[in-house]
Amino acid sequence: MTRLQDTNEADLPSHGRTRAAWLKHLSDVGSGHGFFERVGADHMALFVEESETLLVSFDRAERVYAETRDGMPAGFEMVVRREWSFLSILSMGDTRFRDDDLSLMFETLLDNGVFDTFKRVFFLGLGPVCGHAACCYSSAAPGARVIASRPAARVDQGAGGNTRFADASALLSGSDAATILFDSKEAGAPENFARFSGSNVVRVDLPHCGSALETMIHEDDLAPPMFRALGNNRLDAARVREILRPSKRRNGSYLMRLAEAALNAGQTRRAATIARYALDATGEQRFRTLLSLTGEPIKDAATA
After folding, report:
1. Angle at 202 between CA 226 and CA 106, to 5 degrees
2. Looking at residue 265, what DSSP letter applies?
3. Is 260 helix (H, G, I), strand (E, B) or coil?
4. I need a labelling partner for 143 at 20 to 30 A (CA). Which of 13, 178, 242, 262 fits?
């Protein structure tokens, strides 16, 4: 299983810390405001106690270290902006968050009524595995609200033998509200997301986003407006699309999928229009290549 190794100073991520310094930073944040500790061999937990609103998030340690500007897990911006309390579970390697020690931790939190000490509890998981975990473990806090992007309804059991937190779609039934973001154009998506149902679940189809969905939410800091709307019972499909629209219009991966779908459908002129716009918006030369496949001339960008 992948382990966090130290980093040469010549190859530091944007937050400028070696892995050892990054882990110390998380430890300092935790010791100053809550705790930072190992959960078994393969997970870490960072807890920050601030207000009576708690956000529980799931993230990959390697992503947080290598890809974030501040070295902090998904959702930490709610501590900074809204002074929410925060519990982040970080996986080390491909754990799928299926681990007896982690399950025991949430069972203990549930049995001890820890989540009941907060007025509101939110869960966040971005990506199939993190989204799956957020849906599953939200059952430890009945009445919680959940945002999950492209969550897998089920994942392989992995090393852990505990099956209590296994079926994401079924375990959402105890939540107060859950917003599930997905891309119906992905292989297997219609069958997977059909399982997420119930009056408490809002499914938002975002065609052609794929994994760019998580990139946009992470890089463009879109979690805060989503949680604001969710807390006010206003995070419906229209609001999600409104929040994502500016990011979609400048995300190369999304625009490429959109243009390729048009081209594959024989919509040559539409594909060319998208490619011209994307070339101008992103400067990525792959759109010039795609434009050449349409046979349309390269000219000033048009609105996609």
Report:
1. 75
2. T
3. helix
4. 242
- Measured CA to CA, the distance from residue 72 to residue 190 in angstroms comes to 33
Report the C-alpha gap between 134 and 74 in whole angstroms: 12
179-192: string of b/e by CB count within 10 Å (b at 16+)? bbbbbebbeebeeb
Please give the single-letter amino acid code of residue 244. Answer: L
* Residue located via tokens 């937190």: 165
- Evaluate whether 36 touches 46 at the Cβ level (below 8 Å): yes
Stated pTM of the model: 0.93
Instruction: Please list the alpha-helical segments (H only) found in the chain.
Output: 19-33, 61-67, 77-82, 100-111, 128-137, 168-171, 189-194, 212-219, 223-231, 237-248, 252-264, 268-282, 286-294
For 266-292, write each residue's pLDDT tens digit.
999 999 999 999 999 999 999 999 999
Q: Which residue shows structure tokens 């078994």?
A: 40
pLDDT digits over 216-231, tens only? 999 999 999 999 999 9
Structure tokens at 119: 């007025």
Question: Is residue 284 helix, strand or coil?
Answer: coil
pLDDT value, residue 156: 75
* Contact call for residues 114 and 144 (beta carbons, < 8 A): no
Neighbours of 244 (CB within 10 A): 23
Measured CA to CA, the distance from residue 145 to residue 121 in angstroms comes to 6
Q: Which residues of the chain have pLDDT under 70?
A: 1-10, 157-162, 299-304
The angle, 0 to 180 degrees and rounded to 10, between the axes of the packed helices 212-219 and 252-264 is: 150
